[in-house]
C-alpha cells in the first residue's frame, strides 16, 4: 500500500499540467467575458465555463487535502488555495490560482536558481498586472463615476500601481476595485524586493567568483615559485656536490703545504 505522501505527490504530478491548462482556459474565458462585455447567452456560457473550471480546482483541493499525511500542516501551508475555493464571489481571488503555470515553468526550466527566480518574478509581475487590470475593469466598467472603463485604461492603471508610481489619473471607485488596488500595491512591493534581492545576490556572487579566481591564480603563482625554489635548491646541492668532488680529486698541492705567507714550506715546519 502506498504511503499518503507518495500518493499526494503522485496526484500532484498527474494533475499538474491539466490544472495548468484549466487555469489558462479560465483566464482566456474570463478575459473574453470582461473585455468583450458579454451579454445574454454568451455571458451565461462564459460564466458556466468559469464555474466548471472553479469546480475542478475545488475538487483538486479536496483530493489533495484528503491525501495529505498531515492535514493540519498541509491546510496551514495552502491558505491561498482555500481562499480561491471558499470565496467564489470574490472573482479576482480565483485568478490567483493562475500561479500554477509559473510554478510549472520554474520546475521545468533547466536554469540556475537565480535564473528561475528571475523567470518566476517576471512571470508573476506580468500575470498580476494583467489579471489586476481584468479584475478592476470587471468591477469598475459599469460603476457610476468610474474612470477605469476600458481595458487599455485598466492595464495602464494596473501597471502604474504595481510599480508603485500611481499617477492618480485613474482611480477605482468600487470596493472590489480598491481591494484589487491594495493587493497590487503589496504585490508590487514584493516584486521590487525580489528583484533587488536577486540583483544583490548576483553582484555578491560575481565578487565572490572574482575573488576565488584571484585566489586560485595566487595559489598557482605560489606553487610555481615553490617549484622554482625547489629546482634551484637541487641545482645548488648538485653544484656543491660537484665542487666537493672536484676538490677531493685534486687533493693538496704537491711538495708540502702552503705557509701563512703564501709560500710553500718544502720541509715542513
The tally of beta strands, per DSSP, is: 2
Number of helices: 9
Mean pLDDT: 80
Write down the domain tally. 2
Second rung of CATH, namely the architecture of the largest domain: Orthogonal Bundle
| Low-pLDDT segments | none
Radius of gyration: 39 Å
Strand order of the largest sheet: 1-2
The percent of residues in helical segments reads over 70%
- What CATH calls the topology of the largest domain is Helix Hairpins
N/C terminus separation: 111 Å
**Overall spatial form:** elongated
- Class from secondary-structure proportions: mainly alpha
What's the CATH class of the largest domain, please? Mainly Alpha
How are helices and strands ordered from N to C? HHHHHHHHHEE
Task: Please give the largest β-sheet.
Answer: 2 strands, antiparallel
Q: Tell me the β content.
A: under 5%
Please characterize this protein's 3D structure:
With 269 residues, this protein is mainly α. Helices cover 76% and strands 1% of the residues. It has 9 helices and 2 strands; from the N terminus they run αααααααααββ. The protein has helices at 4-35, 40-67, 71-76, 79-86, 91-95, 99-108, 113-140, 151-162, 175-250, and strands at 257-258, 264-265. A hairpin with a 5-residue loop joins strand 1 (257-258) and strand 2.
Compact summary:
By secondary structure, this protein is an all-alpha fold.
Draw up the topology in text.
Elements: H1 4-35, H2 40-67, H3 71-76, H4 79-86, H5 91-95, H6 99-108, H7 113-140, H8 151-162, H9 175-250, E1 257-258, E2 264-265
Helix pairs in contact: 1-2, 1-7, 2-4, 6-7, 7-8, 7-9
Amino acid at each position: 500500500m502506498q504511503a499518503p505522501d507518495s500518493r499526494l505527490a503522485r496526484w500532484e504530478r498527474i494533475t499538474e499540467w491539466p490544472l495548468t491548462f484549466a487555469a489558462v482556459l479560465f483566464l482566456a474565458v474570463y478575459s473574453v467575458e470582461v473585455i468583450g462585455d458579454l451579454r445574454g447567452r454568451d455571458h451565461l456560457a462564459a460564466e458556466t465555463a468559469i464555474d466548471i473550471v472553479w469546480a475542478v480546482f475545488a475538487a483538486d483541493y479536496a483530493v489533495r487535502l484528503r491525501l495529505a499525511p498531515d492535514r493540519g500542516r498541509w491546510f496551514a501551508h495552502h491558505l491561498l488555495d482555500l481562499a480561491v475555493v471558499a470565496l467564489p464571489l470574490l472573482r479576482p481571488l480565483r485568478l490567483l490560482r493562475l500561479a500554477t503555470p509559473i510554478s510549472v515553468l520554474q520546475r521545468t526550466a533547466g536554469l540556475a536558481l537565480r535564473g528561475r527566480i528571475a523567470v518566476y518574478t517576471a512571470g508573476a509581475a506580468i500575470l498580476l498586472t494583467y489579471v489586476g487590470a481584468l479584475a478592476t475593469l470587471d468591477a469598475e466598467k459599469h460603476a457610476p463615476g468610474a474612470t477605469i472603463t476600458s481595458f487599455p485604461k485598466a492595464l495602464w492603471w494596473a501597471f502604474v500601481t504595481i510599480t508603485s508610481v500611481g499617477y492618480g489619473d485613474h482611480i477605482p471607485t468600487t470596493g472590489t476595485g480598491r481591494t484589487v488596488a491594495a493587493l497590487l500595491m503589496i504585490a508590487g512591493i514584493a516584486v521590487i524586493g525580489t528583484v533587488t534581492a536577486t540583483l544583490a545576490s548576483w553582484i555578491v556572487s560575481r565578487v565572490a567568483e572574482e575573488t576565488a579566481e584571484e585566489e586560485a591564480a595566487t595559489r598557482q603563482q605560489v606553487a610555481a615559485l615553490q617549484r622554482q625554489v625547489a629546482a634551484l635548491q637541487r641545482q645548488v646541492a648538485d653544484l656543491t656536490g660537484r665542487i666537493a668532488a672536484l676538490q677531493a680529486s685534486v687533493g693538496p698541492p704537491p711538495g708540502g703545504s702552503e705557509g701563512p705567507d703564501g709560500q710553500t714550506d718544502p720541509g715542513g715546519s
